[in-house]
UniProtKB/TrEMBL annotation:
Keywords: Glycosidase, Hydrolase. Residues 436-544 form the Extracellular endo-alpha-(1->5)-L-arabinanase C-terminal domain. This is Beta-xylosidase. Residues 565-635 form the Atrophied bacterial Ig domain. One of its GO terms (biological process) is carbohydrate metabolic process. Belongs to the glycosyl hydrolase 43 family. It comes from Paenibacillus crassostreae. The active site is at residues 58, 307. The record marks 241 as: Important for catalytic activity, responsible for pKa modulation of the active site Glu and correct orientation of both the proton donor and substrate.
Length: 867
């Protein structure tokens, strides 16, 4: 994504049957209970108290006496006395009685004149993002008194047209009164307007004109504009995500920016809160851009990802630590925090490998720049996995403890997010490392830990360098041995510095430097476990969490997480995977009441009717054991007798490029570009589509232009077998598996299905998105994918199972044969909203039905084609 947009443990498995589980749960996995439990006399652990969580996107933290405040996008804010439990105190976009801003429209009118209110992307509402609050003791208030809390916010209408304004209050909880708007972006050389906007984007409609009038800038910089007069967002930034900090000499600075031309820094006048613009262009001694208006570039550039800058000065080390978040903010977008440091507030900021945070040219990817703090991860003793952690703030408390504060999404298939706080400790090279588990009041041992405390088996996660967020990172197992060797899934050596918490691990010739820390894990029992966190010269962070050694605790934990983390379904349609070992080195054995229907290995044999089966798991370690039983319905076989209007199985061709239709209508499909028929070992003749990164309408299968002609309110169904290579370097989760549009890019109507299985329709003034997808595609695996749309909404199926649904009245989409305007119909390609063709995928049995198939019919279709 090119801008922020928010729409509102694993049990270690040695699989007996490696197939896709088909699940129809009625409750969340964390709440699921077995039908019976036999604890065999174990001393039961005590469940921890739940924390009070909040959902604040892009949290920026500030402390007032004994209370911590976080401020985030969409006017969300919360407070805490312990950094663990949070209470929200704002009322979002409510107006006129907004807690932070009072009457939004009138108070922030100065910024909204440029962006952020009922305009373009914010049509029908507001877009106020990523504020930062700071106490400025020198600020002169309107009444002449000194000292105020200043909130610097972003008002935005497109991915580049935005503005940073600020408001003042003597009370940290507001209300804040508008003062000024200090940085604008997205302006043009001459008059221009965005879609759904009446705002003239010419630069003279920003504060640049005032700066020209008073001589602070002598003339516009021609480099602000492309040759056609549009905004040059390759060199200059999107004016959002302000962060204020004081340097070692008491000067006040503001970093800001998102994607586009990178991150910039400006000095701020402490008396007024206004920006001090350089006034003239130049370059730093290390060759970085200084712009007369935007300031000095300190990170990124050339439209590469990177946003949410935050700088913390540590007087003990003398370093300024810069944090920037890469990639897209969605759950599968790969959002991840990067770390740099400098001895000067204006840079240069460098990473652990010594690379300058500012990209050298447009051809350089940012994937290897910056220390990646964390990616998509999950430890075995946690009930959820974390996805897209990012847009952080950080601070050093009065006791010297450093913290990382950020928002994170989860692996539950939605875009829901919450705030998390982790402790950070300096390694020997004075780089802050983030400990694996969230803050729970634990203190590190300044004198370190004994060898006996450290030696053992650990879950191990290497967060790598990648910005790709489609998959969870692998959770491995390693052993830190008494002879200081490392064995298991990763090999190498480890060491510790006596009487300190410092540690090193050497893997494949790379030295990772970090700390040991005994802390509360995030299990339901908050057990104390040894952990380590370290970073390497390759900018990669590694984490370790020691596995529970007490047999009694181990079986209780793994029994609990068998419910919480393993997909033991209430009903099944095909083979399920039953784990045979737990995270904490337990053994899990299974028995079945109906081996002929659902075996102890998870093999399913469906009959003509539903059958109830009891599966029993026995979790053992040493002499300790717990048994759990689950009642499961093996669903009967559904019949299927619906004929598609178009169906392409790729078994034959009319000529070298045309594929005959096996459906009820006439019309061949056409291979476009390099799309071809290939032979697949599993499915025989299939469609192969391969594209380069960012390809749009290049290589794909074109379906007849009349595919959607005479589609009625009974709806339609698009079904196919698909095998996507998500490891391909050019893969993007928003790329299209199927799209039909009005004849080209951004021409409506449109219906589409992405590689992330998000399905959409936008037709005749009605639209719907099924974007809460509970399960996605597995890379390089054949899946049966179906989506249906009728007058009542959208349903998405994966292997016969509902994985996404939205109920919405879109009946108008089908009126007057409006969908006949869908004349550009493609498989493996799409470019609506700037999306792109699939990078590498195989397709088979592509079918279009002129009705929305029922759940039973989709099940029948899947069963018919799979068995």
């Amino acid at each position: 994504m090119l801008r922020k947009r928010i729409n509102k443990l694993a049990v270690g498995i040695l699989s007996l049957v490696i197939t896709t589980a088909l699940i129809t749960p009625s409750v969340g996995l964390a709440d699921k209970k077995p039908s019976s439990v036999d604890n065999q006399g174990n001393n039961e652990l005590t469940l921890k108290a739940e924390k009070d969580r909040v959902s604040v996107h892009d949290p920026s933290i500030v402390k007032l006496k004994g209370e911590y405040y976080i401020f985030g996008s969409h006017i969300e804010a919360a407070k805490s006395t312990d950094l663990k439990n949070w209470t929200k105190f704002t009322n979002d976009y409510t107006t006129p009685d907004n807690v932070l801003y009072g009457d939004l429209s009138s108070n922030l009118a100065g910024s909204f004149a440029w962006a952020g209110e009922n305009d373009s992307d914010s049509k029908g509402g507001f877009s106020i993002w990523a504020p930062d609050v700071i106490w400025n003791k020198d600020y002169i208030n309107v009444d002449g008194s000194k000292g105020a809390y200043l909130i610097y916010y972003s008002a935005s209408s497109t991915y580049i047209r935005s503005a940073i304004g600020y408001a003042a209050s003597k009370n940290i909880e507001g209300p804040y009164t508008y003062v000024d708007t200090i940085v604008y972006s997205g302006f043009t050389r001459e008059d221009a307007y965005d879609p759904n906007s009446v705002i003239n984007k010419k630069y003279t409609n920003t504060n640049i004109q005032e700066l020209l009038d008073n001589g602070k800038i002598t003339e516009p910089n021609e480099h602000w504009f492309n040759d056609d007069g549009s905004y040059n967002n390759s060199l200059f930034t999107n004016a959002i995500d302000a962060n204020l900090f004081y340097d070692e000499n008491g000067k006040l600075w503001m970093t800001y920016g998102s994607w586009s031309g990178g991150i910039f820094i400006l000095e701020i006048d402490k008396l007024t809160g206004k920006a001090i613009y350089p006034g003239e262009d130049g370059t730093t001694t290390d060759g970085r851009l200084i712009d007369r208006y935007f300031g000095t570039k300190i990170s990124g550039g050339f439209t590469k990802s990177g946003e949410g800058p935050y700088v913390v000065y540590d007087k003990k080390t003398g370093y300024y630590y810069l944090y920037v978040t890469n990639a897209g903010l969605g759950a599968t977008g790969g959002y991840n925090m990067r770390q740099y440091r400098s001895t000067e507030p204006e840079g240069p900021y460098v990473d652990a490998s010594g690379k300058n945070a500012v990209l050298p040219d447009a051809n350089t990817a940012n994937v290897d720049y910056g220390i990646k703090l964390m990616g998509n991860y999950k430890f075995g003793n946690t009930t959820v996995g974390y996805r897209s952690p990012g847009h952080n703030s950080s601070f050093i408390d009065s006791n010297g403890q450093m913290y990382l504060v950020y928002h994170t999404r989860f692996n539950g298939g939605t875009e829901y997010h919450e705030v998390r706080v982790h402790q950070m400790f300096q390694n020997e090279d004075k780089w802050p490392v983030v400990v694996p588990y969230e803050y729970n009041g634990d203190k590190i041992s300044a004198k370190g830990y004994s060898t006996n405390d450290i030696v053992g088996t650990y879950e191990f996660i290497n967060h790598g360098n990648s910005n790709n967020g489609s998959a969870m990172l692998p959770t491995l197992k390693v052993h830190l041995n008494k002879d200081f060797s490392v064995s298991g899934d990763v090999t190498g050596t480890w060491s510790m510095k006596k009487h300190t918490y410092y540690m090193n691990i050497v893997i494949d010739g790379i030295t990772y430097k970090g700390v040991f820390f005994k802390q509360s894990d995030e299990s339901v029992y908050d057990l104390k476990v040894m952990t380590f966190s370290a970073i390497g010269s390759n900018n990669q962070s590694i984490w370790g969490s020691k596995i529970i050694e007490n047999n009694n605790q181990a079986v209780q934990l793994d029994a609990y997480y068998l419910d919480a983390n393993t997909e033991i379904p209430e009903s099944v349609k095909s083979n399920i995977t039953l784990p045979t070992s737990g995270t904490n080195n337990t053994n899990i054995s299974w028995s079945s009441s109906r081996e002929d229907v659902l075996s102890r290995t998870g093999e399913v044999k469906r009959l003509g009717e539903d059958v109830e089966v009891t599966l029993t798991a026995r979790i053992t370690k040493g002499k300790e054991a717990i048994s759990k039983s689950y009642k499961i319905i093996v669903l009967g076989i559904s019949e299927f007798n619906v004929t598609p209007i178009y169906q392409y199985d790729f078994t034959t061709t009319v000529n070298s490029i045309e594929i005959p239709n096996n459906g009820s209508k006439s019309g061949n499909a056409t291979l476009m570009g390099s799309a071809s028929i290939a032979v697949d070992e599993q499915r025989g003749n299939i469609l192969q589509v391969t594209n380069t990164a960012a390809a749009k309408k290049v290589n794909y299968l074109a379906l007849p232009t009349d595919t959607f002609d005479r589609i009625t309110s009974e709806g339609y169904t698009v079904s196919m077998w698909v095998n996507v290579d998500k490891q391909n370097a050019a893969y993007w989760e928003h790329s299209a598996l199927f799209e039909a549009n009005g004849g080209g890019q951004d021409l409506y109507p449109v219906t589409r299905l992405g590689a992330n299985l998000i399905a959409r329709i936008n037709s005749n003034g009605a639209w719907a998105d099924a974007d809460a997808i509970t399960k996605g595609l597995t890379s390089n695996t054949w899946h049966h994918v179906t989506y249906t749309i009728d007058a009542t909404g959208i349903v998405v199926y994966l292997d016969g199972l509902i994985v996404g649904k939205v109920d919405k009245d879109v009946a108008v989409s089908f009126e007057s044969n409006f969908l006949a305007k869908l004349i550009d119909v493609r498989v493996g390609s799409g470019n609506i909203w700037g999306d792109q063709d699939i990078a590498s995928a195989k397709f088979d049995n592509v079918a279009i039905f002129n009705t929305a198939l029922s759940e039973a019919e989709v099940d029948g279709l899947y069963y018919k084609e799979n068995f």
